[in-house]
Recover the amino acids of this structure.
């Protein structure tokens, strides 16, 4: 942007003085590059045609005081506010330009420069005056000096022009004469376009005067140089004056600052003096106050000392009085103060002469608080000043104490214990016993938390140490295995090197003949030398070092230019670390070749001439093998760890669901809110009397306690239950103490009793979670003649093992006593060792001990040979053998000092335990025990079972429905009051499709379809059945009439009619039945060999395959006390098809008919069942099952997942058995 300004403070006078009257000026706008901010102009007498720069500034002079300063620009550096610039557009430059032929030079201004060239047209007389203008008018100098001073001030201050300046210069237009100066306030400022017009006119006029100008150039230059010299001298003078004024101003400012500083210092000194005086006064006041306080303190101390002295005198007098009174009454003990309070000291006095310690030189007190349960102490007594033989000591009473308990002794063995009743002093205003119990519980909780953290930290460190040691041992084993593997490879490679060659004439050779790993080589092959003579393609399939890494080379051969045979070649990269190259030739790439040339089955081998030195190679090879072994091992370990974690998670989730089902199983009678009861909570108990013996009673009373009725608070007062809106339930609330692990309750019709609902003598019990104490463990001993898997014949062995494990997981102690058969499978017994010997029944009995499935087992081996028969059952004296065993087992418990809570015996074989215990051992060392007897099958040993039912404290059978089915039996009927049905379960660790080693892939409910499909294919392949997607029915059973063999035969044919497959696994103890099924097997194998297979033996791995691979498992038993087959089938996602009897009815809920019955148990329908024992009944269930498979595969697959998620383990039965055990313990 162009700046145009006139540096003139007084434009009117400047106009008259500088220009003169009648002079005319022409202004030409010139565009200059970067004009200086301020350009002053000055003439004593303006020469004709001399250009001047006129810059329009924006300074507002009307706001500033007029100062006279020089505005002349020096030729050197300019002061602040000035930008030095050589004037352009002088007449000299113009003359020079003229001499150059009017060429435009860098020094010649043009019309484009941003400047105004002023030209004056003077007449001849005026020109003459300018030539002779050596005399300078003093008045004009003075006036021009004022102008320069004002212009300089304007330059330094950079202010805007005043209104008069705006009238004098506007948009680069300058008034031409005095008349125009007077008229300028009324004229409009010209635009840049007007300035251009003026410039054009001036140019035209200037052309006519060009000749005159040339004549006058010399005169003009001289005058101009004189003017510039004077201007320069004036500017220096003005600049010096300005500098002097500036220095004077700075000196004045410095003096002013020094004066201010002196003033501030004086003021600060005065303020400091005042502050010091104030502080002195404050200190004097504080000292006076301190003296006053010290005086008051001395006074208070004196008063306190006097008070203490008075109290001491009073205390002394009181103690003397109490001592005299006590002695007079014959009391050897008193305390001071008489009223003992917590968190204070009490002095206890003993008159030694009245005590059993009268002749003892030392007297000590030993005691504790709160019935000897809190903070014990032992303190020595000192002889007092009192008259008589009084001794005393001080005891501090803790704030938790409500009683002091103590005795006196001599520090050794002489005591005064108040005639064995101990001494005690009550503490008033402290905790009551109940509050103290709660306090102890809280203390115990904190202690348990601390111990738990410490134990967890110890376990973490121990686990880390075990991990480190295991990793070290495994790493050493990996390294040892790597060394062995290297030695094998070294030996094999050495043998191979002996056979290898560098080439074989007329068959193959390699170029170049010398090569090493990573080199490019050509392998040539004579096609006509072998079986590939007519092959369309030739390929090399190769590896190295005896095929160490398998197939690593696969290249197609190209035709060679050699003419001496049918030679072909392949380019290949020699593998790194190769010592020997191995290869064969083929007529196609890998997996597509048909014809091979493998050197007569010996492969081709070539030595790598420049291979890695052997010692280095084998070191590296061993290291690689070691790393590979480590990686493989860690992958296996990680897979095992992940599988174990998932198994544990699934088991925990299953237990959680089972517990919920257990709590909801009696919801039609009683339940709680919340369902999971926690210690410290307030719980609401809901009861429906409409479904109990209290139906219709006007009042219902709730009677409650905790911890199997053994809680310290005892039974709570009876509570009348209030009705619940919109229902037949009534409710009551109860607060659960922190030390509860079980809530126990019964219901009655009146506050004082009357009719009770006590769950048929079992009482109602609901577990409490998060309590500070756990249920004390019970000790259960099973006396049995079977135990899976070491001595298993039927379901009895499974129950003994699985029930024991499940109860043990509930933190109870379990032992099993078993005969030591000579046919035991001891490989499944851990830590098997001799325990002891004892004599009984005229023979020595050796006792062995070990663990089976984690359960402690004692094996009794009588030396009379009763159990050296090679079998469990089947001897003609089985009754005698097992009777002897029962008596020997009780004798072993007695002689070994066992004190079990429960002795559990099973079936006829250990039934004698019931009466032998009552007749011979209950009163002689085993009085604590109670007996429980379980009937697994009533078909065997009825007389022994009847006698056991009479003697046992509690009896069970293996399902609820079976207990009802046999309740009318003469053996059972008299004892129904103690007879209960508890369903059996299966062991989820033994039967687990997720970690079953007998099936091809592990599976869970999430991938049950894929798992069962793979297992079905493996099963079909093993048995030679057609591999097809057909419904597969499995039968796993003993072939007896009880198992419904006639229904099994019918189901086989019916399945084949429906285009299904069928597999039977089992054998018959009756030879006639066995032969019958052998004939059936032969018939089926010939007529339906691809869809039917009967395996008439016992095969444990095959049973796992059938459970997992079958779609349906058929169990058409005529009667079935419990049945484990259908439970195992559901564990593996197979759908049971069963007859409605015994445990089959209790566990299988028909998908079409039993939805409500299943929901009452907290379950979903899970199979197909039928009534009757004829072909029509089994057809009804089997046809529906097969149709469901054919017609709704998605629905069927979801059913498989449902049955897998149901818990048929011992989780729930174990809880029921524990309830039974506790009920037995309550009996006298």
């Amino acid at each position: 942007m162009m700046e145009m300004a006139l540096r003139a403070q007084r434009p009117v006078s400047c106009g008259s003085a500088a220009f003169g009257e009648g002079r005319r000026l022409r202004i030409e706008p010139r565009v200059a590059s970067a004009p200086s901010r301020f350009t002053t102009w000055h003439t004593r007498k303006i020469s004709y045609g001399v250009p001047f720069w006129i810059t329009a500034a924006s300074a507002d002079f009307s706001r500033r005081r007029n100062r006279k300063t020089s505005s002349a620009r020096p030729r050197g550096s300019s002061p602040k506010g000035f930008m030095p610039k050589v004037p352009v557009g002088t007449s000299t430059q113009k003359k020079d330009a003229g001499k150059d032929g009017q060429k435009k030079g860098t020094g010649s201004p043009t019309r484009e420069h941003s400047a105004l060239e002023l030209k004056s047209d003077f007449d001849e007389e005026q020109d003459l005056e300018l030539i002779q203008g050596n005399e300078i008018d003093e008045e004009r100098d003075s006036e021009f000096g004022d102008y320069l001073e004002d212009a300089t001030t304007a330059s330094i201050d950079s202010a805007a022009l005043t209104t008069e300046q705006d009238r004098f210069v506007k948009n680069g237009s300058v008034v031409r004469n005095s008349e125009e100066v007077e008229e300028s306030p009324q004229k409009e400022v010209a635009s840049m376009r007007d300035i251009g017009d003026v410039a054009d006119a001036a140019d035209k006029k200037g052309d006519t005067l060009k000749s005159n100008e040339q004549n006058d150039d010399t005169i003009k230059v001289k005058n101009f140089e004189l003017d510039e010299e004077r201007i320069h001298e004036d500017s220096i003078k003005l600049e010096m004056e300005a500098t002097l004024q500036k220095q004077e101003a700075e000196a004045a400012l410095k003096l002013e600052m020094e004066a201010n500083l002196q003033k501030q210092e004086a003021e600060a000194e005065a303020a400091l003096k005042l502050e010091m005086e104030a502080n002195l006064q404050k200190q004097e006041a504080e000292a006076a106050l301190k003296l006053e306080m010290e005086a008051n303190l001395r006074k208070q101390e004196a008063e306190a000392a006097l008070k203490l002295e008075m109290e001491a005198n009073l205390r002394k007098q009181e103690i003397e009085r109490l001592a005299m009174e006590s002695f007079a009454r014959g009391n050897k003990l008193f305390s001071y103060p008489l009223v003992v309070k917590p968190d204070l000291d009490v002095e206890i006095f003993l008159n030694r002469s009245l005590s059993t310690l009268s002749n003892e030189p030392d007297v000590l007190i030993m005691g504790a608080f709160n019935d000897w349960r809190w903070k014990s102490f032992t303190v020595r007594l000192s002889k007092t000043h009192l008259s008589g033989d009084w001794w005393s000591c001080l005891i501090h009473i803790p704030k938790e104490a409500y009683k002091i308990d103590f005795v006196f002794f001599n520090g050794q063995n002489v005591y005064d214990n108040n005639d064995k009743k101990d001494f005690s002093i009550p503490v008033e205003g402290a905790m009551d016993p109940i509050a103290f119990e709660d306090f102890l519980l809280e203390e115990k909780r904190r202690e348990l938390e601390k111990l738990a953290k410490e134990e967890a930290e110890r376990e973490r460190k121990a686990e880390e140490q075990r991990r480190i040691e295991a990793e070290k041992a495994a790493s050493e084993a990996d390294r040892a295995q790597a060394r062995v593997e290297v030695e094998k490879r070294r030996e094999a490679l050495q043998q191979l090197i002996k056979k290898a060659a560098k080439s074989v004439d007329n068959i193959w050779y390699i170029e170049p003949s010398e090569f090493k790993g990573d080199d490019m080589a050509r392998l040539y092959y004579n096609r006509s030398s072998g079986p590939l003579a007519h092959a369309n393609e030739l390929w090399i399939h190769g590896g190295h070092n005896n095929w160490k890494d398998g197939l690593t080379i696969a290249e197609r051969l190209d035709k060679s230019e050699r003419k001496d045979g049918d030679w072909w070649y392949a380019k290949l990269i020699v593998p790194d670390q190769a010592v020997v190259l191995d290869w064969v030739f083929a007529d196609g790439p890998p997996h597509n070749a048909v014809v091979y040339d493998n050197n007569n089955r010996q492969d081709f081998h070539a030595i790598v001439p420049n291979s890695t030195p052997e010692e280095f190679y084998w070191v590296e090879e061993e290291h690689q093998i070691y790393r590979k072994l480590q990686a493989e091992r860690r992958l296996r370990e990680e897979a095992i760890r992940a599988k174990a974690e998932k198994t544990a998670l699934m088991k925990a989730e299953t237990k959680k669901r089972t517990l919920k089902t257990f709590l909801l199983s009696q919801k039609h009678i009683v339940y709680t809110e919340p369902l999971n009861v926690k210690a410290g909570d307030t719980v609401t108990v809901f009861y429906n009397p409409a479904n109990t013996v209290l139906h219709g009673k006007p009042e219902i009373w709730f009677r409650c306690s905790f911890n199997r009725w053994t809680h310290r608070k005892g039974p709570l007062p009876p509570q009348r239950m209030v009705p619940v809106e919109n229902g037949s339930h009534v409710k009551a609330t109860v607060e659960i103490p922190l030390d509860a692990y079980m809530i126990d309750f019964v219901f009655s019709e009146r506050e004082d009793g009357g009719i009770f609902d006590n769950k048929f003598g079992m009482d109602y019990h609901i577990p409490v979670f998060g309590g500070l104490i756990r249920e004390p463990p019970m000790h259960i001993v099973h006396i049995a003649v079977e135990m899976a898997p070491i001595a298993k014949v039927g379901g009895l062995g499974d129950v003994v093992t699985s029930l024991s494990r499940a109860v043990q997981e509930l933190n109870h102690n379990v032992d099993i006593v078993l005969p030591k058969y000579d046919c035991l499978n001891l490989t499944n017994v851990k830590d098997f060792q001799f325990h002891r010997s004892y004599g009984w029944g005229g023979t020595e009995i050796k006792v062995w001990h070990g663990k089976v499935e984690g359960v402690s087992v004692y094996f009794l081996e009588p030396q009379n040979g009763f159990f050296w028969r090679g079998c469990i059952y089947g001897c003609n004296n089985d009754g005698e053998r097992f009777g002897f065993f029962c008596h020997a087992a009780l004798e072993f418990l007695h002689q070994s000092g066992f004190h079990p809570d429960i002795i559990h015996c099973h079936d006829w074989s250990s039934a004698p335990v019931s009466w032998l215990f009552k007749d011979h051992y209950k009163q002689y060392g085993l009085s604590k025990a109670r007996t429980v007897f379980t009937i697994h099958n009533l078909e065997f040993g009825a007389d022994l079972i009847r006698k056991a039912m009479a003697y046992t404290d509690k009896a069970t059978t293996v399902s609820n429905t079976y207990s009802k089915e046999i309740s009318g039996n003469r053996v059972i009927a008299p004892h129904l009051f103690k007879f209960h049905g508890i369903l059996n379960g299966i062991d989820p660790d033994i039967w687990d499709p997720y970690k079953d080693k007998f099936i091809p892939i592990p599976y869970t409910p999430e991938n049950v379809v894929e798992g069962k499909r793979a297992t079905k294919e493996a099963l079909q392949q093993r048995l030679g059945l057609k591999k097809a997607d057909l419904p597969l029915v499995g039968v796993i059973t003993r072939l007896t009439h009880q198992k419904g063999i006639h229904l099994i035969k019918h189901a086989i044919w019916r399945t084949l009619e429906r285009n299904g497959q069928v597999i039977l696994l089992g054998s018959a103890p009756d030879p006639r039945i066995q032969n019958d099924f052998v004939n059936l097997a032969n018939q089926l194998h010939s007529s339906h060999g691809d869809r039917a297979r009967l395996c008439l033996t016992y095969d444990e791995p095959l049973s796992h395959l059938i459970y997992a691979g079958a779609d349906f498992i058929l169990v058409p038993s005529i009667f079935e006390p419990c049945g484990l087959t259908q439970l195992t089938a559901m564990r593996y996602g197979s759908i049971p098809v069963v007859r409605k009897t015994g445990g089959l009815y209790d566990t299988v809920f028909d998908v079409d008919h039993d939805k409500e019955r299943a929901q009452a148990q907290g379950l979903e329908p899970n199979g197909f069942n039928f009534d009757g024992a004829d072909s029509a009944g089994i057809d009804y269930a089997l046809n529906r099952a097969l149709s469901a498979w054919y017609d709704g595969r998605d629905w069927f697959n979801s059913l498989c997942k449902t049955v897998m998620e149901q818990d048929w383990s011992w989780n729930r039965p174990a809880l029921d058995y524990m309830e039974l055990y506790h009920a037995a313990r309550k009996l006298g």
